């Protein structure tokens, strides 16, 4: 499975950035769910996302490759992204903070220990949006490589533990 990012090469088979292509060459379009009150995060949603934490903790894993200026995320990273969509981590629900606050969390100028579940959603949304807007992809890869995704998952685990 490959995620192709548009970099503007003429004559190259280019799909939209949020389209997953698999080895059979058909596309599955992933779109962000609409904003709904019914998109509340449950313990079960969190548990599904946290299943990926050991994968991101293992630094021996290959999370992505770069081929001809294209970032190709691993199958497990693609599964993680799909799980974020499926488990409502890409929707808005409840009162969110302003974009500046989320950017400060993203840049770690505010510690992630101050993030709540709504902030976690907003962080994942910003990471995904950043990847779609990056020519050739790579925003998700950089967020994995610099430990941001793992740190968000660790904070999510703390929030989940507080729910018990």
Shape: globular
Q: How many helical elements?
A: 7
Q: Which runs of at least 5 residues are low in confidence (pLDDT < 50)?
A: 1-37
Which class do the helix and strand fractions yield? mainly alpha
Fraction of residues in helices? 40-55%
Distance between the termini: 37 Å
Give the percentage of residues in beta strands. 5-15%
Largest sheet: 3 strands, antiparallel
How do the strands of the widest beta sheet line up side by side? 1-2-3
Order of helices and strands: EEEHHEEHHHHH
Nearest-integer average pLDDT: 79
The whole-angstrom Rg is 16 Å
Give the number of DSSP strands.
Answer: 5
Description:
The protein is mainly alpha-helical. 45% of the residues lie in helices and 10% in strands. It has 7 helices and 5 strands. It has a 3-stranded antiparallel sheet, with no helix packed on it. A two-stranded antiparallel ribbon has the order 4-5. Helix 4 (99-106) packs across helix 5 (117-133).
């Amino acid at each position: 499975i490959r995620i192709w990012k548009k970099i503007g090469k003429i004559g190259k088979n280019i799909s939209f950035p949020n389209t997953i292509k698999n080895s059979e060459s058909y596309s599955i379009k992933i779109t962000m769910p609409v904003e709904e009150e019914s998109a509340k995060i449950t313990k079960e949603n969190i548990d599904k996302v946290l299943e990926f934490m050991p994968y991101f903790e293992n630094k021996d894993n290959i999370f992505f490759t770069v081929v001809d200026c294209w970032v190709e995320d691993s199958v497990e990273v693609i599964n993680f992204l799909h799980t974020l969509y499926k488990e409502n981590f890409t929707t808005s629900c409840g009162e969110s903070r302003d974009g500046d606050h989320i950017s400060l969390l993203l840049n770690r100028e505010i510690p992630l220990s101050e993030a709540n579940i709504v902030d976690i959603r907003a962080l994942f949304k910003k990471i995904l949006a950043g990847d779609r807007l990056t020519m050739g992809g790579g925003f998700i890869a950089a967020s994995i490589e610099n430990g941001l995704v793992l740190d968000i998952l660790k904070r999510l685990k703390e929030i989940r533990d507080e729910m018990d």
